[in-house]
Every structure is written in structure tokens, then in C-alpha cells.
From TrEMBL:
Taxonomy, superkingdom: Bacteria
PANTHER family linked to this entry: DIPEPTIDASE, MICROSOMAL DIPEPTIDASE
Lineage of origin: Bacteria, Bacillati, Bacillota, Bacilli, Bacillales
Annotated signal sequence range: none
Gene3D superfamilies in alphabetical order: Metal-dependent hydrolases
Protein name: Membrane dipeptidase
InterPro entries linked to this entry: Metal_Hydrolase (IPR032466), Pept_M19 (IPR008257)
Length: 313
């Protein structure tokens, strides 16, 4: 079965350690070409995330990570940069793995919408508006004041409606989420979030938020962060992932479910899900609980349908 993974932080690791090789099956990378091939991943999203270890993150750092994406990832002859719906369809016809470039947090753009347009020109296709804390555009979900968007942030949302960049609400504050629903007129995604009803972590989404994603025909990427799946008193099993899928299905979101692992952005793992090459273990569990067509939709079809509707044509 083909797989789409909506979020990983391999780019950050490649930025932090110039000796890592994406083309080799190295322990330090949860996502590498051999592991993607092993799992049957057809499309992988790679996030530009500037770690808190960078004292003064700037747009130059973002551009450096775009450079790493080109030099170390899509330079592989079997990797293909997906910028348009046509690119996606071309990848389906070939023995290639598609790579989508995304942004996690607007901090380094420093409120300059020219920088955002440059990323659009460079092929960034999804953008998370915040990380956990506040930036010039909005509050993140862990910001204590629990605010929403700034005036400049709302203006940015209107600009995004004219671009080929899809909005990602993972990490956005609750107030910001509902302001976005009012202001932003396109479908949006939560690339790596789970259901708050099952695991009350601030990074997870309430039933009302999930219903809003369903209503706009967006996508919710179920993530493999153990403490977003259940309270970690013991080892978290793959069965916890299925409980979140069941819950979203019960809300009417069967067509909005995908996966967004957060591999390379985590230091704890679900049992039997240590890296992207372990996707086969999820497939095995899914096939015991859902029909083949449902499993194919969760793994690939739902992301595919969304992207073909919302990527530039």
C-alpha cells in the first residue's frame, strides 16, 4: 500500500549535523531514503523547523534549510520535488518518492510578507503558523496568554489565500484556530495532531476543532508522538493510534484522516514504530480493524484527494 506522511523533522537533523546522509540507513535519522523505500512511502512532507537551539532564527536560516532540502534530499535520483498537482500525478506514474517542502512556524519570516512570497516561489506548499509559543503572527498553543492572531497575522492569512501554500493549524492556539475559521476561506490541515477527547494534551484538537476540519474538507494527520496518544504511564502501543482513528471516524471524519508521524522531531516512540520504515506494523494493525479501502484512504487516498484539490494546478 502507498503511504503519505504529512510531517517529519529530518531536515532539522540534517541542518544540525552536516555529517548525516539522507541516502544511508543511519540510526540517527528516523526518515531516510532507504527507510522510506522499505515502508512504501510514496510522498513525504519535510518541515523547515528552526530549533530553539538557534538563538536568533532568521530568514537566512530558512533559506539554508531549503538549500539542504535540495542538496541532500531531492538530489537523490529517485526523489521528486512536488510543487503542483501535476507533479503528484507524475510521481504516481513512476518509481519515485515525492517530497513536499513545508514550514513549521512563521517566526523567522519576521512579519515580512515578501519572505512568505519567496517561500511560495521556492515551492513551500504547507505552512504551520506557529510553533508552541507566540510569534509576530499569532500565539502558539503553549503560550500562557492564550491569544489569537495579531493584526499583521490576519493580513498574512488573506495573503495566503492567494498563494499556493496550504495553512497548517498544528501548534496554533485555540483562540487562533477559531479566528482562522472565521477569516480564512480555504481548506486547511492539522499535519500532526490527535484527539484531545482521548488524550488531553494542549497540542491535540477538541471535537469541535476536528469537526471544523471535517467541515472545510481539510486533513488531520494522526501523529505518533506517544504523549499525544495517551497519558504515558506505560509503553504506548499501536492500538492507541487506532483509538484516535475510531474517534475521528465517529465524528464523521473518515475522509479527513491521514498520518503525520513527526518522526525525527521526537525522542520517544510508540512500540514497534521506531522509524518510518516501521509503517508496515501500522498497516498490519489497520488491516485487522478496517476494510482495505478504508486502510488505503487513511494511508494515502485522503491525503492524495486533498492535495490534488489544493496544490497549485
Amino acid at each position: 500500500m502507498k503511504i503519505v506522511d504529512g510531517h517529519c523533522d529530518a531536515l532539522t537533523k540534517l541542518y544540525q549535523n552536516g555529517k548525516l546522509d539522507f541516502n544511508q540507513d543511519v540510526l540517527e535519522l528516523d526518515v531516510s531514503y532507504p527507510k522510506l523505500q522499505q515502508a512504501g512511502v510514496k510522498v513525504q512532507c519535510f518541515a523547515i523547523y528552526l530549533s530553539e537551539t538557534i538563538p536568533n532564527p532568521s530568514f537566512e536560516h530558512v533559506l539554508q534549510m531549503v538549500d539542504i532540502f535540495h542538496r541532500k534530499i531531492i538530489s537523490h535520483p529517485q526523489m521528486r520535488f512536488i510543487r503542483t498537482a501535476s507533479d503528484w500525478l507524475d510521481v504516481e506514474q513512476k518509481q519515485e518518492i515525492g517530497a513536499i517542502l513545508t514550514l513549521e512556524g512563521m517566526d523567522a519570516l519576521a512579519g515580512n510578507l515578501t519572505n512568505l512570497r519567496i517561500l511560495d516561489y521556492l515551492g513551500v506548499r504547507c505552512a504551520g503558523l506557529t510553533w508552541n509559543y507566540a510569534n509576530w503572527a499569532a500565539d502558539g498553543v503553549m503560550e500562557q496568554r492564550k491569544g489569537g492572531f495579531t493584526k499583521k497575522g490576519k493580513h498574512m492569512l488573506k495573503e495566503l489565500e492567494t498563494m499556493g501554500i496550504i495553512v497548517d493549524v498544528s501548534h496554533l492556539s485555540v483562540a487562533g484556530f477559531w479566528e482562522l475559521v472565521e477569516v480564512y476561506k480555504k481548506p486547511f490541515i492539522a499535519s500532526h495532531s490527535n484527539a484531545y477527547q482521548l488524550c488531553p494534551h494542549p497540542r491535540n484538537l477538541s471535537d469541535d476543532q476536528i469537526k471544523a476540519i471535517i467541515q472545510c474538507k481539510g486533513i488531520m494527520g494522526i501523529t505518533f508522538v506517544p504523549y499525544f496518544l495517551e497519558n504515558m504511564k506505560t509503553t504506548v502501543e499501536i492500538s492507541a493510534i487506532l483509538k484516535h482513528i475510531d474517534h475521528i471516524c465517529a465524528l464523521g471524519g473518515e475522509s479527513q484522516i491521514g498520518f503525520g508521524s513527526d518522526f525525527d522531531g521526537i525522542e520517544q516512540w510508540v512500540k514497534d514504530l521506531r522509524h518510518v520504515g516501521d509503517y508496515g506494523n501500522i498497516i498490519e494493525a489497520l488491516c485487522k480493524n478496517y476494510t482495505e479501502s478504508q486502510v488505503e484512504a487513511f494511508l494515502y487516498g485522503n491525503w492524495r484527494n486533498f492535495m490534488l484539490r489544493n496544490l497549485p494546478q
